[in-house]
């Protein structure tokens, strides 16, 4: 500061000129940050979420045959979607297959939403299973702590077959968003235009607004995954250890699993 004062009295460099230089530097930095595409930034506004305990009562344990060799089953390891006994998709092993979020998301209709999470309900307990010729429905609750008190929300996991696609409608009334953690698979590749058509690697990505309900990504063994509703902010997070987290800012999620798996193992 003494140097600035002396230089100012000498008439070489004034404080106003220094302030101007600082302002221009800050403006340049802000401009560069705005220019950098959101997907290249370290923080893209998606909060990492870790699933906790899964509990499955005997009455909720079982496998539903949907026709055409397609099945969906639930046990203490989680859900398995399969075609002729080859896995299409597994939820995270021995962890809750759904995490409910309380909070809000800004920029939901843009390419760079931002989550603000107030509470996480990370445990699930399935109590019942009802199977008909057309569908299977698992009933349970999602649980967690909010402001030091235990909170429980009703959970419904409904599956049915449409052609070669297993459709899941997952609902948790009272939640602001749902996260579906699924087991990691190699070479997870985005499907344009919902996600970049490249290996998504260990990063998090937001879906292009309104896209990806039928096809958002695929993995090396042939399964295509779509995620809705298209009106909600949706993202995929591959930063977790051994899993892929699907974020949907809605209390109702539509998960589509399509394809003929070539070979896989749990």
Tell me about this structure.
This protein is mainly beta. The chain has 2 domains: 2-35, no CATH class; 54-258, Immunoglobulin-like (Sandwich). It is built from 2 helices and 19 strands. It has helices spanning 2-10, 15-35; strands spanning 54-56, 62-67, 70-75, 78-83, 86-90, 99-106, 114-121, 123-131, 135-146, 149-162, 165-171, 177-183, 189-190, 204-206, 217-218, 224-228, 234-237, 243-248, 252-258. Strand 9 (135-146) and strand 10 form a beta hairpin. The longest helix has 21 residues, at 15-35. Mean pLDDT is 87; it is low at 1-13 and 26-41.
Morphology call: globular
The counted number of beta strands is 19
State the domain count.
Answer: 2
Series of secondary-structure elements, N-terminal to C-terminal? HHEEEEEEEEEEEEEEEEEEE
By secondary-structure content and strand pairing, the structural class works out as mainly beta
Percent of residues in helical segments? Answer: 10-25%
CATH architecture of the largest domain: Sandwich
């Amino acid at each position: 500061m003494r140097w600035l004062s002396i230089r100012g009295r000498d008439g070489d460099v004034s404080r106003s000129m220094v302030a101007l230089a600082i302002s221009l530097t800050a403006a340049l930095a802000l401009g560069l940050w705005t220019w950098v595409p959101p997907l290249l930034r370290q923080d893209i506004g998606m909060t990492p979420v870790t699933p906790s305990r899964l509990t499955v009562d005997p009455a909720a344990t079982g496998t539903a045959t949907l026709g055409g060799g397609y099945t969906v089953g639930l046990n203490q390891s989680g859900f398995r979607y399969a075609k002729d006994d080859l896995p299409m998709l597994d939820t995270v092993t021995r962890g809750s297959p759904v995490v409910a979020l309380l909070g809000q998301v800004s920029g939901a209709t843009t390419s760079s939403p931002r989550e603000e999470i107030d509470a996480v309900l990370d445990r699930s307990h399935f109590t019942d299973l009802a199977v008909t010729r057309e569908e299977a429905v698992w009933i349970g609750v999602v649980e967690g702590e909010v402001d030091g008190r235990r909170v429980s929300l009703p959970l419904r996991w409904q599956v049915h077959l449409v052609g070669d696609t297993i459709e899941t409608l997952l609902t948790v009334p009272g939640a602001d968003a749902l996260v579906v953690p699924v087991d990691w698979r190699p070479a997870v590749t985005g499907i344009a235009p919902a996600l970049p058509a490249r290996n998504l690697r260990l990063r998090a990505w937001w879906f292009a607004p309104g896209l990806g309900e039928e096809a958002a990504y695929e993995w090396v063994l042939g399964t295509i995954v779509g995620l809705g509703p298209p009106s909600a902010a949706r993202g995929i997070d591959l930063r977790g250890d051994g899993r892929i987290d699907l974020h949907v800012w809605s209390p109702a999620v539509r998960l589509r699993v399509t394809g003929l798996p070539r070979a896989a193992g749990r």
